[in-house]
Specification:
The complex is a heterodimer of chains A (about 325) and B (about 325).
Chain A (H helix, E strand, L loop, with lengths): L2 H6 L6 H14 L2 H8 L5 H6 L2 H15 L2 H21 L4 H27 L4 H6 L1 H6 L5 H34 L5 H28 L3 H30 L3 H9 L2 H10 L20 H22 L6
Helix pairs in contact in A: 5-10, 6-7, 6-10, 7-10, 7-11, 7-12, 7-14, 10-11, 10-15, 11-12, 11-14, 11-15, 14-15
Chain B lengths: L1 E12 L2 E12 L3 E6 L5 H8 L7 E6 L9 H5 E4 L11 H11 L4 H14 L15 H13 L5 E4 L8 H17 L3 E5 L3 H7 L2 E6 L2 E7 H8 L3 E7 L2 H12 L4 E7 L2 E6 L1 H14 L2 E7 L3 H11 L9 H10 L3 E4 L3
Parallel strand pairs in B: 3-7, 3-8, 5-6, 6-7
Antiparallel strand pairs in B: 1-2, 1-4, 8-9, 10-12, 10-13, 11-12, 13-14
Classes of the chains: A mainly alpha (about 325), B alpha/beta (about 325).
GO molecular function, one term (chain B): ATP binding
Family (chain B): Belongs to the ABC transporter superfamily.
Keywords (chain B): ATP-binding, Nucleotide-binding, Transport
């Protein structure tokens, strides 16, 4: 088959054209040349959409949506917020709403990190075990971008699913308390999402340095145990035992994204509840400081993972 | 002009020395077949060429640059790993579109380009099925498809036909033959099917224990390894076979003779092979005969023997595959 034949036939059959296709592309002119020629015509938005980072993120997003865990997360948080608001705020009054927020904060410290770790622990090691990581890393993209793109894609799905899950609780809050409470509820929801993204970043880091999915899962569970339970116990013990100052308390909070979430959530209400929360007043932290700390928890683990993937044995 | 230069490269994984001072050069446009024992270092070499790993010592240059230096080399090189896999929830078309986007195939050409590749690798009918439902062979075809996306200058394919059915192997052969004859794409692939390397490759390299045991044009390797052909005969009875084996053993031109039941095998020079057959045919009833020319199999065995000779265990799989695959047969019923 001639070059003309193969280049004009949009629906070739298998064999002969199959063999012609790669050669034809090379004879007809190249991808890179065409790209250079057409680049000026492409809009900035189109180029952004085709950037390697967003392409990887978009693929990860699609995978996550199809795997149905996004639906599971939305349902889980939908049930969670519905139950908390239904049982906590059905008796009208501002005090009841404070109890709702406190309950979301106290139960969220278990649920949010567990969900995020479960979503992210296999991000890199899973692709490696499946055989798709090598193919991905053989593409013209830096290894770091593969990690960051993967994290962005999963974070987008996780955030979307969680926000969707907070909607039923928001509707019930409006019904029982009124529109005035929506701002506080939304702030708690956003804090939960930010915390989830931070823990997702940690999960991606774990996934990057783990040799197998089993190891990554074990490490993720150990991290969950630490951030949800042990960190507060150790911090409380240290504060009480060594008479540490407010700086140590602030550091203890900032060193645990789950505590950051608790601080942000409880800052929306007057109550101070549970565990490490009892010493928050002494810490001298402001809401923007804690939010910034949580943002750092999102960025730093992913950045470290982007560096450490260079050392991953393929 | 060399498009690949590997100079005295060593790579170890813990205590395992995968590559040990390997050097290799490949000219632009060549089709190089790489074969060797299991664990010889082929995959490690390919990963170095693709920039996935760095050598402990030595240097690697592909298309004039260090493969680990940025993404320049990976823009021109396509690497298909031996165990390539894909997310099961994506379709074949989506995976190729993803690779096309990552390879900067122009937006307006992308769909057409993907469609052509799907036809190339014989997956057009399964393009919109999820990869999780693909067979192993279909996954290999899809992997080959990803290697064809864009405008490759160098193809590095790690056992591309492993697990493929005959149609898939044929499609692969057609692609390689087309690229080799019509473009200056450099193709490097490994295979345990030595007949495949003989058919497709202009050059071959045998790797053993992390080093190049021997390398060169395929024809030269074949000739250098052995200048005798193997004659196999099936006779009407074991007694006749015994007599024929004795007769052949008395000929000076026959180097070795062996018999098993009614079958006789002898090695002799190509010029004398048909004389022997004629002589035997005049005296005995021959049910079947075969004259096998020397192939890369002989070069492989010689290289492995020369490299240390303990190929009895680790060489088993490759040697068996070689024996099954590396044949150029002529045979049939006697006239």
């Amino acid at each position: 088959m001639s070059e003309d034949d193969s280049s004009t036939d949009p629906a070739p059959d298998g064999g002969v054209v199959a063999a012609d296709a790669p050669a034809t592309r090379l004879h007809d002119g190249g991808t890179e040349r065409s790209t250079a020629t057409d680049a000026a015509d492409e809009s900035t938005l189109a180029r952004l959409a085709d950037s390697s980072l967003l392409t990887i993120a978009r693929r990860e997003y699609r995978l996550a949506v199809r795997s149905r865990w996004a639906l599971g997360v939305a349902l889980l948080f939908g049930l969670f917020t519905t139950a908390v608001v239904q049982f906590g705020a059905s008796s009208v009054g501002p005090g009841r709403f404070d109890a709702v927020i406190a309950t979301i904060a106290e139960l969220g410290v278990y649920l949010v990190p567990l969900t995020a770790l479960a979503v992210g622990y296999d991000a890199i090691v899973g692709a490696d075990e499946r055989g798709s990581l090598e193919l991905m890393l053989a593409l013209p993209v830096t290894k770091g971008r593969v990690v960051v793109g993967t994290a962005i894609g999963r974070a987008a799905v996780l955030s979307g699913a969680m926000l969707l899950g907070f909607v039923p609780g928001a509707l019930l809050t409006v019904r029982y308390i009124g529109l005035a409470s929506v701002g506080q509820y939304a702030a708690v929801a956003l804090a939960a999402v930010l915390t989830a993204c931070a823990m997702l970043g940690v999960a991606v880091l774990v996934s990057t340095v783990s040799r197998t999915k089993t190891h990554a899962l074990g490490a993720a569970l150990a991290i969950w145990l630490w951030v949800a339970l042990l960190h507060d116990l150790v911090a409380l013990g240290a504060v009480a035992g060594f008479d540490l100052g407010s700086g140590a308390i602030a550091a203890a909070i900032l060193l645990n994204p789950v505590d950051c979430f608790r601080v942000l959530a409880l800052s929306q209400v007057d109550v101070v509840a549970g565990g490490f929360g009892s010493v928050l007043a002494q810490a001298g932290l402001t809401t923007p400081m804690v939010a910034a700390g949580l943002v750092a928890w999102v960025v730093v683990p992913v950045g470290v993972a982007a560096k450490l993937i260079q050392r991953r044995r393929l | 002009m060399n498009v690949i230069d590997v100079d005295d490269v060593s790579k170890a994984y813990g205590d395992v020395q995968a590559l040990d001072g390997l050097s290799l050069s490949v000219e632009q446009g060549a089709t190089l077949g790489v074969f060797g024992t299991n664990g010889a270092g082929k995959t490690t070499l390919f990963k170095l060429l693709a920039g996935l790993n760095r050598p402990d010592e030595g240097s690697v240059s592909v298309a004039g640059a260090d493969p680990t230096d940025g993404t320049t080399v990976r823009e021109r090189v396509r690497y298909l790993p031996e165990h390539a896999g894909f997310p099961p929830s994506l379709t074949g078309r989506e995976i190729l579109s993803f690779h096309a986007r990552m390879r900067s195939v122009p937006r307006e050409d992308r769909n057409h380009h993907v469609e052509r590749i799907l036809h190339t690798v014989g997956l057009a009918d399964a393009a919109d099925r999820r990869v999780g439902g693909y067979s192993n062979g279909m996954n290999r075809r899809l992997g080959l498809g990803t290697a064809l996306v864009g405008e490759p200058a160098v193809l590095i394919l790690d056992e591309p036909t492993a697990g493929l059915d005959p149609d898939g192997i044929r499609a692969f052969h057609e692609v390689v033959e087309s690229l080799a004859s019509e473009t200056d794409v450099t193709i490097v692939f490994s295979s345990h099917a030595l007949g495949e390397i003989q058919r497709l490759c202009s050059e071959a390299v045998i790797i053993a224990d992390g080093q190049v045991a021997t390398a060169g044009p395929v024809e030269e390797l074949r000739r250098a390894a052995a200048d005798e052909v193997t004659v196999s005969l099936s006779l009407a009875s074991a007694a006749a076979a015994s007599d024929v084996a004795a007769d052949l053993g008395n000929h000076e031109g026959v180097s070795t003779v062996s018999r098993s039941g009614k079958d006789v095998t002898a090695e002799t020079t190509p010029a004398e092979a048909y004389d022997h057959l004629t002589t035997i045919g005049e005296g005995y009833d021959i049910d079947r005969f075969e004259v096998r020319e020397p192939g890369l199999e002989a070069a492989f065995h010689e290289a492995v023997r020369a490299d240390g000779g303990d190929g009895s265990d680790s060489d088993g799989t490759a040697a068996t595959a070689a024996a099954e695959a590396a044949t150029e047969d002529s045979g049939g019923e006697p006239a």
